[in-house]
């Protein structure tokens, strides 16, 4: 068993700098983790996997290991003297009313609200036209389970608004149950639908709805492979076993992700079918004709294309086919294939993300990751550019066709999300709801810089911190990144980041390649054999922060989740000298086996697989965090976080990586794994668990940067 010397500090009066004050010490002993002789062979190369047994999430042995690791981790965290103070400040700042934009269904107007520290948001409603103050609770997920670990996922209403179907997640799992409820008396009217995964709920009039799922896997439902998605139709008043299979389920052609969506006028069903997280086939069915055939719009997965709206048989499609930044095209439903498409809103140099409402289209563009929005009519005429409240991220701009107003949200790193009401015809905005939170944006600044990556590529990064901060290289800094799956990181306010910045912390977010900030080409530049670009971009961001005296290696932490957990794992194993703390969350860390779990095979567009070719195997092995932990290397202080119910990126990734690091770590930096129980990949996590987790993450980070106490101003706020 390996022992590590850790500091125990006493007191809450001064801030420790890196002059290393005297500390009492005690020994931390890592749990014993057995090794097995598992060996895989890839293209005549043998690869050992000594911790393969930790992949069995159903075994008592794994459960015992989890318990022992958590005991070690929490024993360490208990020694951080300001951990409770962080938790208290997080709870205080979190405790404000959060209200979502209203939306109309049938006779009622609905909205989501959280009073402050409720584990889950509550759905309220009032009769449309009446005073919103008369709103009553419609659906309260906090009543599903006392500890808040059952969350509301999807809420979908029939055309007349008299019936709703809603899905729930238990313990953070991606598997869902769907309940059907009469809106008026809130009575459940059918048996619960079960074993549903990666699914929307799209109603066909008032008759029933479409949903998607896989066959329930044999063995562990949390880790067993699922790669044959199917689209079903559930007719109200019938049992789930009678549900009609609409698409998928043939051995000849497997699709890992299938979704069905009904147009607002109930005329068309569109079906999207994908083999990976990028690219989809697209099909169309005329629901006004009972015997209509399924028409093919696209028979390949070379693009991402979907139906935005229709005007009778005129279809408005959003596509990146031959348009990496996306465009809107029109086509008649009778001949919907690409050779008949006509450009409606052509591609620009910025990435398009459109919506519709009130008989208009709203084109949201990302300009260096910042929102710009314009309004168009159904003939393609630009009506106006929307004046936004500031520089940041706008969301929403969606409503039904007959609405006269819609709502949108606006936020950035220093502005808590506010909701604005928009008059669709006049083009005017008014503030609808602004949160009352104990945070003054005027005390903080957020600016965008551009730095140069290893190969000369210019990469943007937004850096946020208190105004007037001294650039002396000693500011505690979190560098956060993702860099994958065409996902864009745009400016948004976070309570947890606010607490970090209150402590004098810097929060920096680069827009790495692999993301979608600059369209499909930016995404592709960080995939497969170009994945190293993502890590190089992240490393260059860290070097920029250090060179410009925002921070230094002793005060830098890197953080990311899921694909971002891979980013952190790869960066810390390639450049352990660059940071003091590493915080990989729910990470993809075993790049040779990721595709063998749950829906992981669908990520091959971004990653490739070890079986694909010898070249791909060697490339993956060359950066796979699990396979690049070296003996005798001093890695940064590391706290890996995961959830025991994560069936997206199974916790075995984190388990095995922790075991490798604990075995090979040199020096005094701790390597811990914090395993949340009854929690999954992140969505639906109760507020109470989130607060606890961030108190631990920030406490661990500051403690390992040498802080004996929190900065004085935070202490003053807590005392107040």
TrEMBL record:
Describe the function of this protein. Cleaves peptide bonds on the C-terminal side of prolyl residues within peptides that are up to approximately 30 amino acids long. Has an absolute requirement for an X-Pro bond in the trans configuration immediately preceding the Pro-Y scissible bond.
Show where the Peptidase S9A N-terminal domain sits: 31-434
Matching entries from Pfam families are given as: Peptidase_S9, Peptidase_S9_N
Q: According to the lineage, what is the superkingdom?
A: Bacteria
One GO term describing the cellular component: periplasmic space
Cited InterPro entries: AB_hydrolase_fold, Pept_S9_AS, Pept_S9A_N, Peptidase_S9_cat, Peptidase_S9A, Prolyl_oligopep/macrocyclase
- Report the source organism: Marixanthomonas ophiurae
Question: What is this protein's record name?
Answer: prolyl oligopeptidase
Question: Where located?
Answer: Periplasm
